[in-house]
Design goal:
- This protein has 501 residues and is mainly β.
- The chain has 2 domains: 336 residues, 5 Propeller (Tachylectin-2, Chain A), CATH 2.115.10; 146 residues, Sandwich (Jelly Rolls).
- The strands form 7 sheets. Strands 23-34-25-30-31-32 form a 6-stranded antiparallel β-sheet, with no helix packed on it. Strands 24-33-26-27-28-29 form a 6-stranded antiparallel β-sheet, with no helix packed on it. The chain has a 5-stranded mixed β-sheet with strand order 4-3-2-1-20, with no helix packed on it.
- Strand 9 and strand 10 form a beta hairpin.
- The two termini are 29 Å apart.
- Bound molecules: beta-D-fructofuranose (FRU).
- The site of beta-D-fructofuranose has 12 residues, from strand 1, strand 5, strand 9 and strand 13.
Length: 501
């Protein structure tokens, strides 16, 4: 039975609607210092359906104001995921004097519509001349069709290609695991460019969703820009259920080519996982952020169990927005992720407690005298030999409840274990233990943990590895402890900032 309300799990740092179901982030962008976020929203119930675009705004990426529904589902049409750009140069011609229009490209799913077979998916355009408060549909509806009855053609995402001065749209044919690329100069008329599917990549039954293409300088060299294709996949992600893959490579204005593919295409490591935890899906980039590094936001849930998550009267929350950089790791380009600068600023406004060094003896436990349900925690863990050491988050007084983040310098594995994190019984597909390989740097690993009322986000080694998990602890589980098992370890530069509202 669903409780009426679970305020103990209402996030303090993450967006969630006041009530009802939410999945993917849609069309996020920045304009006039205001961050806008749209999202797949069911305004009527706690499960997926009646898909509309909800809308929220923020000035600091931490506090959000829910706005009126932007694009409501209608009787003949549901509104699936998509993106928004600010058409500053009015290339669409949809602006008015001095008013740059916002252009939303999204997927229409037609049902009971005389012009389209039931279930057809195609790309539609809506525009706004008042910064997203109200939207009008373009008379050309849809603007892009694959075939008159394609049912798996969705999730348009846009990127500006400066060398050719045109927009590129990525969409998927979800069940064929293909990204389709198109180009346009006016955002209304789209020409096919190419398909992206890594050679040999056939996983029948897996859906590809929410593709996003972007360019980034490699190792900070502006003259060496590389391209990254981010694709959400469901199921069979690294942590079970749904998750996000990314490919690094080149884009020549027509074709995206992944640079980690061997000639026979058999390398299963041609992609990386964006996140090694279970709750990161449908990652999408904020548009119109100028020269700033790309900022990404995801849905913090998993299709394997999203509709049973025990929160009420809302279900679904977003991850923290993160900024991306591309750096060489083990001889190949790799995405590094860190919480957005706005979040870092917010943290710095709060008093922190810090320790230069704490030694943990073999099988030792250290519990700092503090209680937090929401906190930002950073430290370096130094050790040697086999044995796990790390931190227990959201721990109960009797130590029976807690989420364990540990590292083993012997096996070089980072583990996030939510077996005893609280309510885990709402779905047998709520995977419990997530493990990833992480090389120490000079004998240590750095961990940045963002702990909220119902989630743990981990950024390891300066963001080289990310792990995101939902948890549903008891309200009173607000202790922290550090531990070392089978081998000693040392904490360095520990800093804990309580963020409880
Ligand atoms: C991804 C997704 C998208 C689709 C939307 C529907 O989570 O399945 O492919 O547009 O959600 O809500």
């Amino acid at each position: 039975l669903q409780p009426r309300s679970t305020p103990q799990w209402r996030p303090a740092l993450h967006f969630t609607p006041q009530a009802h179901w939410m999945n993917d982030p849609n069309g996020p962008f920045l304009v006039d210092g205001v961050w806008h976020l749209f999202y797949q929203y069911n305004p009527r119930s706690m499960v997926w359906g009646h898909t509309s675009w909800g809308h929220a705004t923020s000035r600091d990426l931490v506090h959000w104001q829910e706005q009126a529904i932007a694009l409501p589902a209608t009787s003949g049409r549901d509104i699936f995921s998509g993106s928004v750009v600010v058409d500053t140069a009015n290339r669409s011609g949809l602006g008015l004097k001095g008013i740059a229009p916002l252009i939303a490209l999204y997927t229409s799913v037609y049902t009971g519509n005389p012009r389209h077979p039931d279930g057809t998916q195609a790309q539609s355009l809506a525009f706004s001349r008042n910064r997203g408060q109200t939207w009008q549909n373009h008379p050309l509806d849809p603007v892009l069709t694959l075939s008159p009855d394609s049912r798996q053609f969705r999730d348009p995402s846009l990127t500006w290609y400066e060398p050719g001065r045109f927009w590129v749209m990525t969409t998927v044919v979800a069940d064929a695991q293909i990204v389709k690329l198109y180009r346009s100069t006016d955002l209304i008329h789209w020409d096919f460019l190419s398909d992206f599917q890594p050679p040999g990549y056939r996983k029948p039954g897996m859906l590809w969703e929410m593709p996003t293409l972007m360019s980034l300088p490699l190792d900070g060299h502006p003259e060496d820009r590389r391209w990254v294709m981010i694709v959400s996949v469901n199921p069979w992600s690294i942590a079970g259920g749904s998750g996000v893959e990314y490919y690094t490579g080149r884009f020549d204005g027509t074709r995206f080519t992944s640079d980690r593919l061997p000639p026979d295409g058999s390398d299963p490591a041609a992609y990386h996982w964006l996140d090694h935890g279970a709750d990161n899906y449908a990652a999408i980039r904020f548009a119109n952020t100028g020269d700033a590094p790309p900022c990404l936001i995801s849905w913090m849930s998993n299709w394997a169990y999203a509709d049973t998550v025990p929160t009420a009267p809302w279900r679904g929350q977003m991850t923290l927005p993160v900024t991306l950089s591309l750096r060489t790791l083990n001889n190949s380009p790799h995405l590094y992720q860190a919480p957005a600068p706005d979040y870092a600023l917010f943290v710095r406004k709060h008093p922190a407690q810090s320790w230069l060094r704490q030694d943990l003896a073999t099988n030792g436990v250290w519990r700092p005298a503090m209680r937090h349900s929401v906190a930002d925690i950073t430290f370096t863990l130094r050790g040697a030999g086999s044995g796990r050491s790390g931190i227990i988050l959201r721990e109960s007084e009797d130590r029976r409840q807690g989420t364990r983040l540990s590292y083993d310098f012997g096996s070089k594995l980072l583990t996030l274990d939510r077996t005893h994190s609280g309510n885990t019984g709402f779905s047998d597909r709520f995977s419990l233990v997530h493990v990833a390989h992480l090389d120490p740097e000079k004998g240590a690993v750095t961990l940045h943990v963002v702990m909220d009322r119902s989630s743990i986000e981990v950024f390891a080694n300066d963001g080289a590895l990310r792990m995101t998990d939902l948890i549903f602890p008891d309200r009173e589980s607000d202790r922290l402890s550090f531990f070392a098992e089978d081998a000693p370890a040392t904490l360095e530069n520990l800093r804990i900032t309580g963020l409880d509202p």
